[in-house]
Amino acid sequence: MHILFLTDNFPPEVNAPASRTYEHCREWVKRGHQVTVITGAPNFPTGRVFPGYRNRLRARETMDGVEVIRVWTYIAPNERFLKRTLDFVSFMLAALPASLAVRDVDVIVATSPQLFTPCAAYLGSLFKQRPYVFELRDLWPESIRVVGAVKSRFILGALEALELFLYRRAAHVVSVTNAFKQDLIGRGIGAEKISVTTNGVDLSRFAPKPRDEELAARLGLSGKTVIGYVGTHGMAHGLETILWAADRLKSEADGRDVRFLFLGDGAEKAELKKMAAEKGLDTVIFLDSVPRGEVVRYWSLLDLAVIHLKRTALFETVIPSKLFECMAMGIPVLHGVAGESADIVTRSQCGVLFEPENAGELARRILELAADPARRRELSRRGRKAAARYDRSALAAEMLQTLLDVCAPRTAAHARHRGVERHS
């Protein structure tokens, strides 16, 4: 089977969508299938093209057997809605002709959250007469509504109409959470065309590692209890809650040896750094994103990892992918996200919950766990054990079977046609 995958995030970008897509595609190639990815020049989230790449009209490379076609896009940082929308639309306009030039495709997959990538896949499916599959990673435009990125009812209404149109026209929808599936069913999308393949973790990369003492010394973290946030610093994440907790702890005797490490970039990073400076938070360190191969070194510094999203009903439906990386590395989680992901933390006993946007509770949880290394070790052990259920290679096989099932009717019809030809 030849899978054509459209995505606007792909390595060397290191965010969750890029990792999921790459790891799935790599596994599909290992299982004997052909995979072509259409994406743009790597630039997320800063809007600056990564070293070694250029924003060209068309460029090709091969990554672990995956054929990667990079197209020109209007590049903008992950900050302003209008510029980001131009980025998304430009990718759609460039990805469509690029996809039409890819021959002998059996299925076209497009990943969200933004809807313009699935638009290109849908149009490509019409020209090629091949099924298209919508991979649903976020409920968009609802997610941009709840964070206030767009307030126009007209724009939001138009985007929701487009969203539902694309679900209905898809041969299948692969959701990353059960809650997303239930949301679609509640809006009239047939349950039979929706399956769930959750996010997971590459267990060959993420595993318990001793603290990188050279790196810890360089960052002034030797002998400290390190609380970390790794990932996008966006509007949805409410990371000021962590800074408020850090502010509370700086005056606590038990909090003097606690340090906070932020690794990543995003629309809110400059404001967060400004807030930390204004509060005199010398216990907080901000670092820019690092190459994909270096991320595990920084994870190894953490005694506890914070996962947080703003308090809203929509975010109760999401499962942050960094949860599975923490589990695999045996890093206990301070989990400030209600809903489906909190259920995973509770079942696996890999961390403790705190109320989203409640800095006081977060600060208390930090002090409790900082003073209880035996409990941290137990949370670590249970997290490592639970991580096996979210092995990316097994999840990639699960999604592959979904794609094979989508292609099965056409494959069977083709086989019947070939049989008629042989007997005529």
Describe this structure in words.
The structure is a single chain. 44% of the residues lie in helices and 16% in strands. It is built from 15 helices and 14 strands. It has helices at residues 16-30, 81-100, 116-128, 142-146, 153-169, 178-186, 213-218, 240-249, 269-278, 295-299, 322-329, 340-348, 359-370, 373-387, 392-423; strands at 2-6, 34-40, 58-63, 66-71, 107-111, 132-136, 172-175, 194-196, 225-230, 258-263, 284-287, 304-308, 333-336, 351-353. It is globular. The chain starts with a strand and ends with a helix.
What's the total helix number? Answer: 15
Annotated CATH topology of the largest domain: Rossmann fold
Name of the CATH homologous superfamily of the largest domain: Glycogen Phosphorylase B
Helical content stands at: 40-55%
Strand percent estimate: 15-25%
CATH architecture tag of the largest domain: 3-Layer(aba) Sandwich
Radius of gyration (CA) equals: 22 Å
What class, by secondary structure content? alpha/beta
Number of domains: 2
Distance between the termini: 27 Å
Residue runs with pLDDT of under 50 for 5 or more positions = 415-424
